[in-house]
């Protein structure tokens, strides 16, 4: 009797912890009481309490297992069937949940709650998910729609690969036998701007280097000078040159007898 009283006190303490929101501590007390339980009714109650604690802790698989333990002891336990069905819906196992709801309707056919739940589960199952193979095919079709046409791809690659300027073939009508193909550059060469500090290129007489001392002479006027001289005039000019005589004197030198 003392052991039974201690077990009942532990269960009452677990109920208080559960109502206070201390679900993990309550679960430990329910588990300790379940180890000391002897009758099926007491075990069913403790498994049901453990399932409620697991639901509060969001451990839905453990909660479903506790409901299964209850149904092993009582196959027509409506509370365990309803709780397991709701847990399976949370786990998206709609087929197993519908199985439990059908059993509930067998137990109580007049229940509107069970029938409404059954209708909702059937609607959910009718919305069959898209198979993976169909999803892949739809994904590939969307990729094909996003890709540009093949012709555009070829044009783009030809533009990116050509580093040389484009050339055009022009047909010119000439008096020759046939048409002559003339290759013209598509783009004009770029002009190089010469800095203003550089001197301009000399032209004509300005290109001739000027002698020292005569930098001011204008050699460009020599183009207009007519050359009427002849070889005879050159000889006369040589004769007209002044003649010089040289006399040798001896300074400071004695004659030796």
TrEMBL record:
Stretches the record annotates as Disordered: 141-243
Residue spans of biased composition, Acidic residues class: 225-241
Listed InterPro entries: TPR-like_helical_dom_sf (IPR011990), TPR_rpt (IPR019734)
Basic and acidic residues bias: start-end ranges: 146-155
SUPFAM superfamilies linked: TPR-like
Protein name: Uncharacterized protein
